[in-house]
Every structure is written in C-alpha cells, then in structure tokens.
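On to our target:
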Amino acid sequence: MAVITNIRTSKNITTNDDGKFLLQDVRPEDSVNISFIGYTSQKIKITTFGNDLTIALAKGQIDLKEITITNHADNLTTSRTLSRIDLNTMPVRSAQDLLRLVPGLLIAQHQGGGKAEQIFLRGFDADHGTDVNVSVDGLPVNLVSQAHGQGYADLHFVIPETIAGYDFGKGPYYADKGDFCTAGFVAYHTINVLNKNTAEMEYGQFDTKRGLLMMNLLSDKAKEKGQSAYIAGEALYTNGGPFDVPEHFNRYNLFGKFNAKLGENNNLTLTVSTLESKWRAAGEIPGRAQAEGYIKDPFGSIDSSQGGYTTRTNANLKLTSLLKKDFIWENQAFYSYCYFNLISNFTFYYADPVHGDEFGQHEARDIYGYKTALSHRNYFGNTTLSSTAGVGIRYDHTHPSWLSHTLKGDSILNFIQYGVVKETNAFGYIDETLESGKWLFNIGLRFDYFNFYYLNKAPASDTASSIYNGLNKSQEKSILSPKINIQYTANQEIQFYIKAGKGFHSNDARVVIANQGYQILPAAYGVDIGLNWKPIPNLFINTAFWYLYLQQEFTYGSDFGDESVEPGGRTVRTGVDFSVRYQIAKWLFANLNVDLAKPRDLDAPKGGNYLPLAPTFTSTAGLYYRFKNGLNGGISYRYLDNRAANADYSLTAYGYFITDLTANYTRKKFEIGLSVENLFNQRWNEAQFEYVSRLKYEKYPVDEVSNTPGVPFFAKLKFAVFF
C-alpha cells in the first residue's frame, strides 16, 4: 500500500500486498516518489528498464503532507488512510484499544475482563459482534451460534504489539466480506518481520501486572533468503478494578509467525497462536440494589459465583503465488479450537425465587476453513481493470453447546438447552474494478450457502426437549449479495464516492431449527454518500451520509430460559460519520470523530420504536505528540450520549465522557511509559441493560436498568527493553 507517483505526469499507483507495482507511461529519466505514512519518502530517477528494482523505505516522522488521495481499487474502503495515520499516532495499550482505533466504534466490558467486548457502531448495539465482521490475518474471529451470543468476536488472543496494520469498512459494500458485515468490518494484519526483540513489564493499580516477550528466531542471513520467524508471549494478571469481588483475571497468550519464500514467485506464511483466560465477575447490578442495602457501593456484587474460563488455539497457513501474466493466486487454510464456559446472573430471583436465576453457558468448538482467490490486472491504455474471484468454505462443529440453570457456579440444576451444533458456510464471489481517468467503478457479487444442524441432547424432562422434539434437525438457505462502489477523484486533494450494497447476518442455529428455517439469513441494504478531502496539505477529512435497512434485527433477552438470539422486526438506520486528521506541527497531531445515527424499529408504533441501547451520538478525539528526542504520547476522550434503554425510552442508558492519557519516552534500546484511563476519575457506567429482576426477599420483580460500573482512575507504568 505504498504510493508510487510519477512526478512528471502526477499519475500514481499503490503497491500490492507483496510490495509490487506496475506504473505505466514512464520515460527514461523520469523520477518517481515513493511514500508511506510513518516512513521517509524516497525520490528515485529511472535510468534503466527491464530490471527488477527493490526499494526499501526507512521508518521516519509522520507527515500528513505526504498523503495522496488515489483512485485505485485498493482504497475502496476509504479507510486505509485513516487507519495508517491512527496506528502511527495513537498509542495502543491493549487488545481493546485495537477495536477503539476504528472511528465511531466504542466498546464495553460487562462480565469480567475475559469476555469479548460489547461493540457499538453506526447505530448498532452489535452485542459481541453480530453486525461487525472481525478477522486477523484472514482468520475469522466471529463465532457462529456461540453459546453466549451470535457472532461472538473475542480478540483477546491477539497480542497488540504484533499488529502491523488494520483495515476497516463501514456498511455491507465489500464482496470478500460475508456474514456479520452489516454495520461494517475490521481486519487486522500482524507483523511479518520483527525489526527488534522486545522484553516488557507493566505494573498498575488494582494489582495489575503484564509481561511481554517478542523475539526473532532466525538470523539476518535467513531474512536475506526471504525467511523469517518470530515468537511473542504475553502474561497478564489484574483484579480489574475496586470490585468487592476481585476479578482475579488471568490471561496467557502465545503467538508465532513464520515466513518463507518458495522459489521466486511463492510466499508461504504460517501463524499459530493460543490463548488461555480465567476470571471472576461482579456482574450487572440493578440501580436499586445499593439504595436498598444489598450492596454497599457500585462495585459490589449480588452473586459472587459469576465468571468464566476460555481458550482458543489457531493455526493459519497462507500461500501467495505470482503466476504467469501477473496473476496472483492466494490460498489459505485455517483451524481453530475454542473452549468457553461462563457463569452469569442478571435477574437473581425472578424466575426461580428459591435457587436463584444463575445460569451457565458452555461450548467446545472446532473450526475448519479454506479459501482461495485469483486476482489480475489488465491495462488498456489509461484504463485498468482489476479482477478478483474467490471461493471458500467454513465448517463449525460445537460439541456440545449448552445453556444450564446453575447454583453457586458449579452445580447444574437442569439444562435449558443441550446439544450439538454443526454449521457450514460455503461461499464464492467476483469483484471487478474499472479505473479510468478520474473515475472508478466497482461491482461485486457474493454467493453464500448455509447449512444449519442442531441435535438436541437434553433430557426429555428439560425445557429444551419441548422445543426441539419432532422438528427437522437441519435447515439450509443461500443468499446473493450484490455490491457497487463508484469513486470520482477530482484531483489528489478531493474524492467523492457512493456505495450501495446488500449484506446479511446469519441467525443462531438453535433459533433457526426452533423456528424451522424462518428468516435464516435476513438481509441488510445500505447506501453511503461521502468524500475524502485535503483542503490544505496537513489536513485530511472523511465524511459520509449513510442509510441501512435490516430485514430482521437480532434482539437479546436475559438468556435465562430464552434462545441466545431472537428474531426481531425490520429496522432502519440513518446517520452521518465525520472524521478529521490534522497535523498541527511536525510533532503534534489531532484527530476528531463524530458519528450520528437514528436507529428505529419499523414494525413498532411511533414512540415505542426505539432500539434499546443503540447509540445515537458518539465521539472520540485526541491530541498526540511525537518528538524526535523520543517523547511521545497524548490525551484523548471517548464520548457516548444518553440513549434509550428500552423500546419506548421510559428507561435511559446514561452516557459518559472519559479522558485517557499516555506518555512515553522511547529510545533505541528502551522505552518507559505511563498510561492513565479515566484521568479525571469520572463515575460512569460502562455497560447497561434493561432487566426485569427480583432481589432476595423482594415481593415483586422490578423492571429497570442494570449496570456494570466503569473503571475509575487507573494508572499503569511500563518498561521495555529492545535488543
């Protein structure tokens, strides 16, 4: 994704994933400029033709003046520029910060530190990933028909220091993205080669400790032959905050990556990783609990048995081949094993006044996948046609999956659901992009086939048997998703675009079988109209007006006694996204994101058509500095406005304004850093939900908002050594 510009003609091209490019209309003695955000630009005079030339860029100061708005297929997401700027200027402290890098995306943690974060984006409370497609090096993160929630996307297996870059796109406009890509997608890419070894220790409040080690495994001679390998390990422990029930959150990560050049035209990459995590959770607390003396402060707990344990192990193999006539062929195979066990209690003594409403969610899962794509560029004078065709398959086998009524975290009273899930998704897509002059036209078509299978294995006396007995165990359906994107690049300072497309999110297999195939793959239809603009050399602006219609919203109940995801009605969202990146001085950068949305239920009467917890106004912004002497860091805020907690807005989920601070001193051999979350020690609620709950000894249940308090002032120090 480096930009190559012919200085004489001002024509430019971006390099592909392997760094290769083809620039047309070049004459002897022409000069080309090579630029990439965060690296020192180079100017090279062309003196010979017919020979390969390798151009290596060196790390350098960030300069927004170097940004060029290009009219190429590689930039269809309109996000690559934003992502490159943000990853080079915004400090990343954790796996959660990786999600916060996406403009307009906010997260919440509400059941201890080990669970996947709740995601808010474009007017969606996307739960743990139902409407946001997440991947790492092409490996899907979202879990279909997961025990806790459809599309569950737990990124905690990622060590943040291994991330080299990320792409994101909002809306359902991308042919290579399938299930869950309605609000958008986030795709992370890990580092191929370490430029230094790192050993790091972190210490913070609430008994927080973290250790990190990243090391190259091969010599410099091996790198010269196109081979590299490194390993990264992470260990984390924290009590998570001033909770009366300490989280005792442990997480262990191990990651390895190997790259090899096979001959002149083949690159092989193998990544392996494993995660183990265990924690306790205070849980969500009804607003009345403290006032009535059930807890002494907001950090109390009513059920101290809540918590979880999870593991995930991944293997990901990718082969990229350069074929004759400049065809690029990518093949990828992956495998994941996931284990998940979670104990929760949201309603306390509402459903069972004697034993309480505590419930457990459990699964063990194998994921197998393969995908292949063939790409080619054809040149016709000043017109370029970029073509990609891909097919693939993913198979999930969950054995078993259960939802149970539990007591004190270790006794199962009865199974609400217990069974085996098998789910297959086969897909294919074609993507054609025509670049001609100032215009770009992209058309894509995606085909997805799903087969859902659920075998109920609960005892005949349990709740599940009354639901599934006599039903067909298998359902299937396919869906076509067309996409179209048009760009007009007036010059290197301004670009207009319009996007339109159809996407979808699949439903949980248990719900599919229970409903006998009704609305298995509800579609989403979206339109974006926007622009990228550089009114002055050191200012970049992106804005878009957007619309999104869903055939079926997914809604979530208390989990106890219900499916994990239930079919809802038709919904519509409209909104505005606005992002600004400004370089105030060589060493000082500013960013601002403002995102407005109006989410509504089309099948409900006016006044009762709010979408619970859906964000309507979010904003993030920051000032970041980076001096040549090694001082770097910044101050930033994240804002979430008040929003409806239920359909008629009689209950409110209150917003927050939280300020974070980072300060580092980075030298060639070491780094010392300080990070502070919630700098001004604001009292805030990180997660909020409407529940009908009953506390012990209460005569009647109460419908109100339960919440998990946000962490107060939290400071953390780090010391890293590079060798």
Observations:
- The mean pLDDT is 91.
